[in-house]
Amino acid sequence: MTGAIPLRKRLLVRLLITSVLIAMCSVAATAWLAVQTTTRAIQEEQGQVLAEDMDILRQLSGYAATHRDWSGVEKTVRAMSDRSGRRIALTTQDRTPIADSETRNTALPPRAAAVVDPLHTDTFTEPGAQRTGIDPRAVGPYLLPPAERKRVRQLAEKRRHCFSENYVDTSITQLPSGRSVLTDEGGTVDGGAVPTPCADGLLNTPTATEEKALAELTTYAKGCLDGVDLTLPAPFTVTAGLKVKPLPTKYLGATDEQIADQNKKAEQCVDRARRRQLDPYVAPAAELFLGRGDSAAPHFDMSAANKAKVTGVAGLVLALTVAVTALVATRLVRPLRALTHAAQQPPEQHVRVPVTTQDETGILAVAFNDLTERRERMEAQRKAMVADIAHELRTPLTNIRGWLEVTRDGVVAPDHELLASLHDEAIVLQRVIDDLQDLADADAGTLRLHREPVRADELLEQTVAAHRVGAETAGVRLSTAVNGSKSSNGSAGSDDANRSDGSTGSGGTLWLDADPVRMRQVLGNLVSNAIRHTPADGTVTLSVRRDDDAVLFEVADTGSGIAPEDLPRVFERFWRAEKSRSRRTGGSGLGLSIVRQLITAHGGTVAVTSEPGTGSVFTLRLPGIR
User: Fold this and answer.
1) What are the backbone dihedrals phi and psi of residue 333, each rounded to the nearest 5 degrees, phi first?
2) CB 166, CB 191: distance < 8 Å
3) What backbone phi and psi angles, to 5 degrees, belong to 232?
């Protein structure tokens, strides 16, 4: 039955598909969320680490730019390490330790993260470093004393006021050297073009300190500047902003390309000279090593947005899972609830359930309906059997009671004929009770068989002998046939009649392993049933023959036959083909049921074929022995 269900409709397949879909959705959502969150977290972490590295490098470069050596940097290194949770170590170019946030003798990372050199820096975190490669905080001899710093501040305030009167917005910015300059919103020094009323030249005039430093710078750069190009005299000057004042665009007939190249070479000369000038004022170059501290394990701090995304996706997947599970569970549970409701109804109602699916649940509903139908049929049979048993027992008991009462009252004398009649009624009761006991034993599996090798022809002979008188009384002729040889008197004796070793004697004698008493009971029930339904001058034939390894008994009659619609019920208990027959003319209705039970106990089968008006044939198939 299960094999007839299409694969896509099987309950197990549907549950597996549902589980796989839910799992795929969950895995896909989890994978997508993990990729998105992890990618963003890694990017944020990388950006944070890069920002931390740049900040550490900027601070150490500033320290080197404002100190002549690294002697006091240990405290700064430990403070930065405590804030960032990173290991920070400084060494000389030959890996001699300068400062380390970790304990001594702790191995350094394999490669330095950067070189801290304020004169050759690659950090652009401070204004001016991008153009020259020199940390703008490295000012050296250009650091203004307080008096000069104040005077320059006043000049800057005056110029800013002048700019404001000419509708130019500027602000004052103090450089690391202490010099104040004007910048506009874009950061341009002096606000770009200077209005004519404000171009007094005072703010950009070098102070005494700057004049001295510039003179020293000019001295350092003189050799380089003088050797740039002998064909072009070099009246280069350096401004207070440490910039080379370029040649004019027309100078002694030089071309534009020559002037641009000369200006570029001059700037390079000034940069080299400036590094030479600042070198005594800054700390020597050092290698910077960065790493994770012992207490700082790598981790990702999930942002509020990522937390909300994780919560949202998890809630969506959970809602989808609950919805799909609820839908599938409802479809699966609905027919089961119908089955449960039907099973809880009173037994006498015999409730059926609708079959709405073709899967395992539908098969269960069909089986439940079949079971209900069989139970209803068995209940009807049980009621009919109880009524039949009561009827079968009531009639003889009523006769016995009536005759005993009239005898007790002296109405009838207890003569021999009366006693014989009462004895007959008692025998009828005993027969019904014995039949019921046999059926009960067969149903309970306690029916005992005393098996022994039995000759099939002797069983026929004994059965015919036992029913010859009854057949003659009914005007019915009995005949037997063994392996096709017919006899009218049931005689089937032979020279091998006394053999009991299970072998086949001369003449093809058939043997079977059976209980002879129960087999005579089986054949007797069939013969008596055949005589009862065969009219006068009819014939009842008992035959036996071999069919492969089996022995086939047949009891055929020329009686009234059985209607086709009644054939499936002939072996039911208390069933009679003619309802009008009484227990005396139609039997108790238990004989054929006993036949089926006894043959089944012997490991055989019983079947019947019949044609109304022609007769019936009952066939017994039993295992034979050779």
Assistant:
1) -80, -25
2) no
3) -120, 110
- C-alpha 19/C-alpha 324 separation (Å) is 10
Q: What angle do CA 31, 34, 36 make, to 5 degrees?
A: 105
Give the H or E element holding residue 218. helix 208-226
DSSP state of 562: -
Tokens matching residue 449:
């068989």
Burial grade of 456 (CB within 10 A; 0-12, 13-18, 19 or more): buried
CA distance 478 to 36: 98
Task: Tell which wins on pLDDT, 383 or 102.
Answer: 102
Which one, of 412, 410, 416, 502, lies nearest residue 456 by Cα?
502
DSSP state of 244: E
Q: pLDDT higher for 392 or 3?
A: 392
Tokens of 623: 């295992």
Summary mean pLDDT of the chain: 78
For residue 312, how many other CB atoms are within 10 A of its CB? 11
pLDDT tens digits, 533-565:
899 999 999 999 998 889 999 999 999 888 888
d(CA 272, CA 270): 5
CA distance 519 to 523: 6
The residue type found at 446 is T
CA atoms within 13 A on the CB side of 529: 30
Name 139's Cβ contacts closer than 8 Å, sequence gap at least 6.
65, 175, 176, 177, 278, 281
pLDDT digits (tens, 9 = 90+) for 192-223: 677 888 887 788 888 899 888 888 888 887 77
- 511 class by beta-carbon count within 10 Å (0-12 exposed, 13-18 middle, 19+ buried): buried
The enclosing H or E element of 172 equals strand 171-174
For 198, counting Cβ atoms within 10 Å of its Cβ (0-12 exposed, 13-18 middle, 19+ buried), the class is: buried
Q: Residue 124 contacts by C-beta under 8 Å, 6 or more apart in sequence?
A: 130
Q: Which residues contact 184 (CB under 8 A, 6 or more apart)?
A: 168, 169, 170, 171, 191, 192
Residue type, 134: I
3-class DSSP state of 477: strand
Residues 49 and 42: their CA atoms lie apart, in Å, by 10
List for the chain the helix, strand, coil content (%; round to 5): 50, 15, 35
Residue 295 has pLDDT above 50, yes or no: no
Q: Are 532 and 524 contacting, i.e. CB atoms less than 8 angstroms apart?
A: no
CA distances to 117, 147, 561, 568, 570 from 565, rounded to whole Å, are 114, 134, 12, 7, 10
CB contact set of 255 (below 8 Å; sequence gap of 6+): none
Task: Please list, in sequence order, all residues whose beta carbon lies within 8 angstroms of the beta carbon of residue 607, skipping any fewer than 6 positions away.
Answer: 618, 619, 621
Residue 239 exposure: Cα atoms within 13 Å on the Cβ side:
11
Extract the tokens encoding 94: 């030959």
Q: Is the pLDDT of residue 233 over 70?
A: no
The secondary element (H helix, E strand) that includes residue 552 is: strand 550-557
Encoded amino acid at 74, one letter: E
**What is the rounded distance in angstroms from the CA atom of residue 582 to the CA atom of residue 595?**
21
**Per-residue confidence (pLDDT) for residue 229, from 0 to 100:** 52
DSSP 189: B
Report residue 221: phi and psi, to 5°: -90, -10
* Residue pair 200/190 in contact by the 8 Å Cβ criterion: no
* Token pair belonging to 518: 């129960």
DSSP 71-84: TTHHHHHHHHHHHH
